[in-house]
Predict the structure.
Amino acid sequence: MAVTLTRMDDIAIATVENPPVNAVNYAVRQGLLEALVQTEADEEIRATILICAGRTFVAGADIREFGQPPKPPHLPDVITLLEGATKPWVAAIHGSALGGGLEIALGCHYRIATPSARLGLPEVTLGLIPGAGGTVRLPRLVAAETALDMITGGKPVAAPKALDSGLIDALADGDLQEAALRFARQRLGETLPLPLSAQSPNLPRDAEDWKTRQRRVLDRARGQAAPRAALEILDTALTAPAKEALEQERETFLRLKSHPESAALRHVFFAERAAGQLPRLKGAEPGPLDHIGIIGGGTMGAGITAACLLADLPVTMIERDTDACDAGRARVTDILDDAQRRGLIDASRHAALLSQLTTATDYAALAAADLVIEAVFEDMATKHAVFKALDTHTRPVCILASNTSYLDINEMARATAHPERIIGLHFFSPAHVMKLLELIVTDRASDRALATGLALGKRLRKLTVPAGVCDGFIGNRILSSYRRDTDAILQDGATPSQIDQAMRDFGFPMGIFEMQDLAGLDISWAMRKRRAATRDPDERYVDIADTLCEAGRLGRKTGRGWYLYTDGKTPIPDPEVEQIIAQSAEAAGITRRAFDPDEIITRILTAMQHEGQEILNENIAERASDIDVVMINGYGFPRWRGGPMYMAGHRDS
Ligand code: 3H9
């Protein structure tokens, strides 16, 4: 039974139990309906507590049911009946009340939540709008501005904030069920509040401010359908009678449910949950993570250190001398300062986290480490020296990881005494911010080493995607591949700004040339020089980027790269670059021609998909959807398009 009814004297307790997250499926809808009928019919019952078993309140409608035709009773109808109950219902919320879960709570007469609970309407992140009354009831309970933020942004709010905005009536002190029972008893003599759909909406406080908020939503939406639909439906909810707004909301929800954008976003939802599952690790035990070592306090090392500290993992950072130790500590402090400025941590937590950082110049400080990550200069000899020192100074059970983004970790492992403990942990910059982590599966890595890498990713709340050893692993290998192709498109006739514009219109936050200017052109220049000797002579090689670098155009930091930067940040197309491109084409005997944006995007997608297929053929990626997860979370591929492999027709998650 998905919903069971018990009694505490004259108060009924309806408990939803549908693990793992109490998602609303047919059984839950039917169970709620039956509980409602029974509590209404039983004269001895004076109120009902709606509570959930397990780790959370109802986390939304069951997304797995979305591919099938809806089966009655429909959730909007159940909630309308709930709202019309003649005796009070109190939603007792712990964990997350999301989507359909929050909509059920809005159908109850009161809401009480544990202080750690979160409440939200994340439908827009699945390409949807709330479909069970959320857009209509929410602005009748909280300010229109709060409703707009929650419905169009999809971000859940914490219970204390929900209390301030009026979304919940009380925070639960101690045991949730006890608190809800006390709350219900106190209200027994009171008149039942009017159902939210019978109340008037809270109108925007200021017309100009409202317009600004709407514009901001549309700007962020970049062509996505759901945020735009959410704005339209919220307007209806604020102006039309509730019944009409509810009908329109349902129609829009059903239309969006069958829209390709929602199908793509649902694919990503499940792809992100499938990523990080390595079948060979079933039953493997990770090692402890009580003491982390980081070699190198540069940008990457400091970012990884901060990520570990913020996850309450003590860190020992090794640097070559005390000045470098101080510089590393200063970089970590800067990151924590920024977290404090943004309200993510307070001063006392800042101090507590920094007290967990030790710096040292002697590897002997890592004698008790459980996992060490090296983030030193990308040079094989330097890496060998680091692993040699780690071989000597760490315990054999300590897992050793390289953060290299392209060097051969198998080669590093072979040069150590215990290659089975060597893995790769490829963080993305800034390491404390970016969600993506590639776990590099070296040839001889033990299950324990890999399970520990995954456990670290989980602890840091990263999306950890396993990848085999190859040049660039999954993400950088695909990036190199389409970067080569965009250089070829330039030589064939397009300009950097045409390519960047096409990518932005497709949904990337920035184009590939703007991105290179931001990162600096010198790193890939050095890599191209390193590979020059082994490059396939039959492969088309475009020399435009090399010419730019030789002319000192290294990107934003030198004021010139693919673009000109007069104010340090705004890319301005530069005739000098166009001349370099034209000369390169002429030297290669190419007659340049015009490209339209569709052709540019098709070429880029084809390059990504072709390389992705090679990666699958070589078993570098575990599944096609892992490639989508990498490109979306590390390289700005628009989430609502599902990822390059999804667009190519792969459906493996
Ligand atoms: C909606 O409600 C529409 C309504 O407005 C209208 C209806 C008419 N359905 O994330 P986790 C699975 S739209 C099915 O790893 P966590 C998930 O796949 C919905 N399954 O746990 C995973 O399965 P597995 C609006 C779901 O603790 C397992 O549960 N709601 C659903 O890190 C554990 O998930 C949302 O968008 C679902 N709705 O995070 C909320 N949710 O073990 C989506 C989860 O097989 N959910 N699963 O891999 C979440 O944000 C997180 O899951 C949550 C827990 C925060 C709840």
Residues 3-258 form a domain with the 2-enoyl-CoA Hydratase; Chain A, domain 1 fold (CATH 3.90.226.10). The pocket of (S)-3-Hydroxyhexanoyl-CoA is lined by residues 20-21, 23, 56, 59-64, 75, 96, 98-100, 103, 122-123, 126, 130-132, 134, 273 (CB under 6 Å). The chain has three domains: 3-258, 282-472, 476-619. The longest helix spans residues 597-617.
